[in-house]
Design brief:
Length: 324
């Protein structure tokens, strides 16, 4: 079996949903996680999740030691751009593993091995293309790929900016493509849009769009399902994980619960989902939706663009709020 370890530096207070995340890790016993943090709160870490207490300064020094140029890493948020370097920076921890990866902790894992099969792991050197979860084949060439130049861009120049340059989602993917290394890009994860109060999944297969109107998630003893209403019927599909991007999820369950539901925007005790329950749980909020999307597009507005954008949004709202 191919071995996998995730590397997660997290500085600051761990989120209140962290114990539930740990529970979803626990039910993937053949996967390892390694957390570097300065939060000394006592948690019940499962055997496959190891915590290393350290400071931001220690992490910065560790990364700097492995890079052949001075780095500008002054704030923890900038670590996002250094995720691609973890294979080098934490090589003493990843040694002996077939794959290493980075991931976020504002998510709930499903059954990882049911997606990361032996065939998949033997086929791809890079699995995933988003900052919330990506795996790399643990070889020297793959681990140093981020240091290669792409046209007029290079990692050294990009990390000089104080802004997040989305290296983990943009530059690194283009580097791999330019070297002819195929990335597994199937949307087996649920990345929830932050621009609506209800649930909407980004990165969908075309055939899954009808399932993106009314749905919730069901966590069932280590397996994660999207449960959707389509044409008056309930459709259930497994997912690798659900990512709560910029959502403050309330936790109304015990972290050790093996069955629960995930609705906007709470984790609640399990009950058998019905059509009425799903429709009501993920019902769109038109006013909140309009405000969020206005903010998203405000910078584009002028006398020439106002009415075309307004008309586009009205049509979009009509489609979104029309039931399946």
């Amino acid at each position: 079996m191919y071995s996998i370890i995730y590397i997660i530096p997290y500085l600051g207070k761990l989120p209140h949903s962290f114990p539930v995340w740990l529970g979803s890790c626990k039910r993937n016993p053949t996967i390892k996680w390694l957390i570097f943090t300065d939060d000394h709160t006592s948690y019940h870490y499962p055997d496959n999740v190891k915590v290393v207490y350290c400071t931001f300064t220690e992490i910065r020094k560790r990364i700097q030691k492995k890079l052949p140029f001075p780095i500008a890493l002054s704030e923890p948020y900038k670590l996002c751009d250094f995720k691609v370097a973890y294979g080098l920076a934490f090589a003493d921890y990843t040694e002996g593993y077939d794959f290493w990866g980075f991931c976020d902790i504002d998510l709930i894992w499903g059954d990882i091995r049911s997606f990361f099969t032996e065939k998949l792991l033997s086929t791809y050197d890079k699995i995933g293309y988003q900052g919330h979860s990506t795996l790399f084949h643990n070889t020297d060439r793959i681990n140093r790929m981020f240091l290669e130049r792409l046209d007029n861009e290079c990692f050294e120049e990009l990390v000089k900016s104080d802004k997040n340059m989305f290296i983990d989602e943009d530059f690194i993917n283009r580097i791999f493509e330019s070297n002819g290394i195929t990335t597994y890009r199937e949307p087996i994860f649920a990345n929830l849009s932050p621009f609506v109060a209800n649930f909407k999944i980004n990165h969908l297969r075309p055939e899954d769009r009808p399932k993106n109107k009314r749905f919730i998630f069901s966590y069932e003893n280590g397996k994660l399902y999207r449960v959707a209403v389509v044409k008056g019927k309930i459709v259930k599909d497994p997912y690798l994980y659900v990512h709560f991007l910029k959502r403050d999820m309330s936790v109304d369950i015990n972290p050790n619960d093996t069955h629960y539901l995930i609705v906007p925007n709470s984790l609640i005790p399990y009950q058998t989902p019905t059509i009425d329950f799903i429709n009501n749980a993920n019902k769109p909020h038109a006013i909140r939706f309009a405000i969020r999307h206005f903010r998203e597009n405000a910078h584009k507005l002028n006398w020439h663009t106002f009415f075309p954008i307004l008309w586009t949004k009205v049509k979009g709202y009509y489609k979104l709020f029309t039931k399946c």
